[in-house]
Please model this.
Amino acid sequence: MCLAIPAKVLSVEGTKAMVDMGGIRREVSLMLTPDVAAGDYVLLHCGYAISQLDEEEALETLRIMEEAGILEDALAPMEDS
Amino acid sequence: MKYVTEFRDSDLARRLIERIHEAARKPVRLMEFCGGHTVTIFRYGIRKVLPPGIEMVSGPGCPVCVTANADLDRAIALARLPKVILTTFGDMFKVPGSCGSLQEAHAQGADVRMVYSPLDALRIARENPDRMVIFLGIGFETTAPTVAASILEAEKSGLENYFVQSMHKVCPPALKALADSGEVRLNGLICPGHVSAITGSQAWVPFARDYGLSCVVSGFEPLDVLQTVLMLVRQVEEGRSEVEIAYRRGVTFEGNAHARRILDEVFEPCDADWRGFGVIPGSGLKPGKRFERFDAAEVFDVDAGPVVEPVGCQCGAVLRGVVSPAECPLFRTVCTPETPVGPCMVSSEGSCSTWYQYGGGLEV
Ligand code: SF4
Model:
C-alpha cells in the first residue's frame, strides 16, 4: 500500500509533470514536491510525486525493479480502474 | 543463498548475507513494521538465508489490515447510499466487514469504483456533478498527504460533490503502543521506507532513544532489506540504538516538510481504532474545521449496524507480532485468498496472504 516507485520527470507544467516509469508515460501531480524540475527523479505514489530521488540511486533502483518484476505489480491497479 | 536467485545481482546479495553471518553473534529479534517489507522478505526468501539467531517478526504496517471492522462497515454503508459513488484503492475492495464487503455491495448494485489515485476520484466527481463522490482515505503518512492535496484541489476548484471518509492513520503511536505493551521483545526495527520519505527518519528517534530499539529505514528491494538487517545486527552487536538510513536514495532525516505542511493544513489528529490494538489516542487523521464540508464522516449519517468480528480470526494477534499466520487454525484450511476470513489474508501486503503466497506457512 505504501509502495512508491521511481520515475523520471520529463517535463513540468505548473504543479503537473509528465514522467517516465520504466518506459510508461504518465501525468502526475507535483503538489507535494514543488521544487522538482525536468530531469529529476521522484518517488511516485498514488499519482503524486512524494519525494525527490538521488538520480544515480534511482537508475539503480529502476533497473533492479524492472528485473524483479515489481514495476508491473505496482501498475496493475491502474489498469483495473 | 539460493533463495535470492530471483534477484539478478546475487553477488552483492551473497556478500551482504555473508557479512550478516559474520556480524551476528547474539540472538536478535527484528520487526519489519511495514507490510511492503514483509512482501520483500518472503518473496526473496530472506528469512531462510539469515543466521538462525536472527528472528524476524512482521508488524502492523498494512493500512488495510489495521482498519477496524466498524470503519469497514461504515464504508460499505456509505457505498449503499443512493446517488453516491464510492471510490477506493483496489486493496479495500474484497476486505470482509461485519457483513459483506465492498465487492458484495458492488455486486448488489452499489456504485463502487477502484481508483489508483485520489486524482481519479476528483475526475470522477467532476464528470458526475449530480452524484456525490466519496473517496475512502486509507493509508499512513505516505498516502495521507496525497489525499490532503486532493482536498485542497477540490477546494480550489470549487468542487462540491467530493468527500473523503478518512481512515488515515499515523505510524509512531501504533509503534509506541506495541513497544509499551511489552508483548514482543524486540532489538531492532526495520523502519518503513515510504512513510519515512514524508516523516523523515527523525520520526523514529524516540524509539531509539527511549526504548533502546536499533532503527534502520529500509527500501523495498531485497538488497535494501539485507543491507538494513546488516546495519541492525551491527548496531545490536555494538550495543547501539540509533536511527540510521539504508534507503538513502529516497529518505532523509528531515523528510518532506512541504508534504507535511499540506497534511497539517488539511488534517488534524484524532483517535483511531486499530484492529488488534483498539483505539490509540492521536493515531488517526481527520479533516480539520475548514474542510468539514469535505469530511464524509460529518456530512453523511449512516447506520452501519452492529459490529461482528470474524470468528476464529487471529488478525489482531498477527498484527501485534504475537502469533504468526501459520499459528492461526484457519490459515490455509478455511482462510485462503479466495475465501478470506480476515483482512490480513486479503491485502496484498497482509502477513497472512504473504505467507500463503510465498509458502511462509510451510515451516514454522
Ligand atoms: S489466516 Fe485468515 S483467519 Fe487466520 S489470522 Fe490470517 S486472515 Fe485471520
In short: Residues 315-358 of chain B form one domain. Residues B 313-315, 318, 325, 328, 330-331, 335, 341-342, 344-345, 352 surround iron/sulfur cluster (CB under 6 Å). The first helix of chain B runs from residue 10 to 23.
